[in-house]
């Protein structure tokens, strides 16, 4: 087991190296002059030259890459060219917003997805099964920004149930230790702020949860159906086990194994993929920050945030693999 | 008794204007709060309320008025500018700076000299992009404090737009004591996050990419702001901005989607303000590439493009057709110049006279962020006189670079004034000096001696009337040479709650909120 773990961890090094090369070259191979983009049409020669010098763009590519890697290995992710803030600090500042949103979305996806999948499997080919699987297909195919706009239009503008944008109403001020507004408001004992933060969280979480919900529902259904065919389930039924016990204990526990492994990766996907949701709902998280950086060609942010996302993915993969190896010993032997 | 009632009523009216929180929703956050370091307009929405300059532009217009300098003298040779600072102006006190510091000449010196490089500030080298772009180092020879309240600028050569330049945000006056305090703490970078100015609002909080909260500065030296608070909110999606306004969750939104404007305007509590901004868009014709070196070809193209239709299709009528290379609201605009007019017959004749009776093939560069329709419109219009246009799309950065290097034959361009002086359009964009610089801002590579002589001479004169005459003549020369196709003067558009009053959509620095109030 230890050898497996070590091998698995060592494998992440070339992966991350590859990612760093890719991220670095992607930004540098795109044509156009970042200095010109930052300074805009108002730029003159002198200003452009000064900025290029400051950005180190006049140095050879290899030298730029080595200096980039050197800084990263020393824990320095660089400073934003546009705002001058430390990239790591800026990331950590925005990360709680994205994590709060992603965890809420995952929570919704798990509850709704699992329940729908289980029910659809039990009532196979029923109206519920057909309808829910139809919705699941629609959920996977729906563009998130469109769904977001529709949610805002109906639930915020027409019905007035939820706010249109943001994380918290201006009437409240939270400067808590965690950066999670739900937790910070509770720590501060500010219940109105808690409910306000919750109301702000509902629509973006639903929008972000749509695709994972659909995936979990479909996977759970398929997996349940497979397990329901197994001999031990039939044996349990034959032994006169009550149906709820057959479903929850005998079937679900086994059916959930493949689903569990996907959930870890799903969270990583949610963290990285909240770009559209954050932009639609004006959610001040990492996704929107990355989009801004791309528009402004803020190289250090683009490079480092992509690298961080890659690390999250690789990390999640690693954790999932290790967990899987624990659940299924055959994996580590092979 | 009657006068007492009137007095009470007027007090009530005055009182009615006071207070409230204005929530201004825009597409992106600013990048920093040191006005000398930033180059994006969104940053100035916050800083031009916090900081002030020696002179400023009257709100909603292009007129210069005193600000931190109560008066000034300009020497006859136009080389020295002496400014008398207002007495009793104090920098703001906030939770991060509670020292009451009076504005004096040393603050002005600090604010300018760090940009000249004389007084180094910030640990890492920072690029004072705006200072460099405006060529300030080649204008200013020296800056000196004559006494506590008097500052003198000596210029290297006469430069008439200099006074207007001093009203630009990047020349805001910062507090030297506060900057020194940060330097002592080895926290110079905080100057870009925690501003201390003399303006009508001060910073309360800034959650990046989310909101900036400004509070009324109750110790402001001039007429105090009406609003208690201004919240600058970031809502990237324009449709969501419109929905938030519809719900009354925000008070003003910038840049609404043009196709949503009629719906917004029809809602009972909402008003849409639209006015031509200080903005021109055009198509550059590269005079260094054949056949655009031929004036007749350029005239033919000007006659072949229906700018009325262009404005209707591309701007959905939220613009007026352009005529001159600066907007009509700028002083010195030549009203007598008439557009060439849409006439295909004349266009074909001109083309035949130029030796292209069968037309020719050419390319039009455009950026993917521009309206695709605009390029297709030009393509269709020119096809009618036999000119076959191939449209080439580029990513924004590539586009800027290619046009600045002169790789294009035809390309879209636009310019928004950041200082209300014709020089900012006529010299900076179209002089032969601008064409000589690579990368250039003169996308047509227009190098007329006659034109350049006029706009350069206007730079050195201090009389605005004489300058205006020169600029009007320059516009005639320009119109005659037609190095471009004027397209549009786009409108500046905001949608607001009807109760929001006093916000101006035209002029420079429109996001100064001291004049804005809520009608009760």
Automatic annotation (TrEMBL), chain A:
What InterPro entries does its record include?
Answer: BPD_transp_1_N (IPR045621), MetI-like (IPR000515), MetI-like_sf (IPR035906)
Q: Which residues cross the membrane?
A: 9-30, 101-122, 134-155, 197-217, 255-276, 307-327
Residue span of the signal peptide, if any? none
Give one Pfam family, short name only: BPD_transp_1
Q: Where in the cell is it found?
A: Cell membrane
Q: Where is the ABC transmembrane type-1 domain?
A: 95-320
Annotated membrane topology:
Multi-pass membrane protein
Give the keywords, sorted.
Cell membrane, Membrane, Transmembrane, Transmembrane helix, Transport
Q: Which family does it belong to?
A: Belongs to the binding-protein-dependent transport system permease family.
Question: What is this protein identified as?
Answer: Dipeptide ABC transporter permease DppB
| Organism whose genome encodes this protein | Helicobacter gastrofelis
